[in-house]
Amino acid sequence: MTPQSDSSLAHLVRRKPSIGILAAGQWVSSVGNGMNAIALSWVVLTLTNSRVDLGLVQGVGMLAGMFTLFSGVYVDRWNKRRTMMVADAIRMIVAVALFALAVSGHLTVPLLVILVAVAGLAGVCFSPALFAILPQVVDRGDLHAANSLQASSRESADLVAPALGGVLMGALGPASLFLINALSFAVSVFSLGMVRLRPAPAPPPDREVDTNPWKAFWHEFIQGQRPLWGDPFLRRLVPMGMVTGLASVSITVMDVAWVKQVLHGTALDYGMFVFAGAIGAVVGSAMSARVLERMAVVRVAIWCLVLWGAFMAALSLVPVLWPDLVIMAGWGVINGVLSATLTAVILDTVPEEVLGRAVGTLSALTNITSPVGAVVVGVVASLVPLHLVFLAAGLVVAATAVGFRGLRAQGVPSAE
What we know:
By secondary structure, this protein is mainly alpha-helical. The protein is built from 17 helices and no strands. The longest helix has 32 residues, at 17-48.
């Protein structure tokens, strides 16, 4: 793997304008999603001041995401662009409903749970489709560059969203972010309509077509799992992801409680807190290719997990805003390196025709413990100090690095 320079990415966009349109549309949508997430967490704590409710709302959203385990089968069957456009249209309607309920004063935690669940269910088809559509937008040889462009777009959106969201939420209230999110989905739908795609690969000519829909579904589902269980790195990644998902959900769910209730910060402070993690992720993603040139993938995974846990533990020991911003930036760097590394492994390992199924399954299985974790963390954080929750979670994440020891790099993309 070689790092993608700005010039090579610009050259790709000139040759394949559709990848630029796709990335731009998803950038706008990611900014909207990021601001919506900030507003959602802030609203829950403002309504009830309950960490249990915060964990419940976040857990429902994560639970909906578990359906990616099966949605990949349909993503690989259906027109991927149309699937993404319908999913974004549904999420746009949800965002409009959140805005209307918030400004009218009728927004409650039960309504939040329902709307978050609907948006999450729509997203279970969108995420695998976005990953699987790339081979239809660019040639196989451009996949790494296209993925790098998508990652850069997403990460730069993650930079803009918390900073801008914190300012707008402080000035206009959280309801304004729900409306902006709805508009961002409209932009995404429009941009997807402008993307030019090459035809999806046809099924093998000798493939048997089962007329029984249930048998056909399970046959296609199992077919999509083979690349995951046949590769030693991806096979080991699943249980490791389950453990880290359970532990790391503490920071992803309780970050707003840490800022609002422990640090006694404002909406702007919360935006800065999330922004620090996002800017670290951008740096980490940019570093990932160079890291892989110098270190085997397995070693990258081990070190990332150790450092990830160390930063979470450090955060628990320093309940002061400015040092916490530095810690969050370091945590973001590690997340950026690890995320970009795993994405590159999947693109190199999984065949295009089953990419939607494999990504959906991997996403669901590695995050299957997150919904329960969100609820459990909400309950535990209401009973014990939050810094103890962060400390325990950090130690668990660091300990999972042991699970990758002794794994050979067979089936994993090389660093050349």
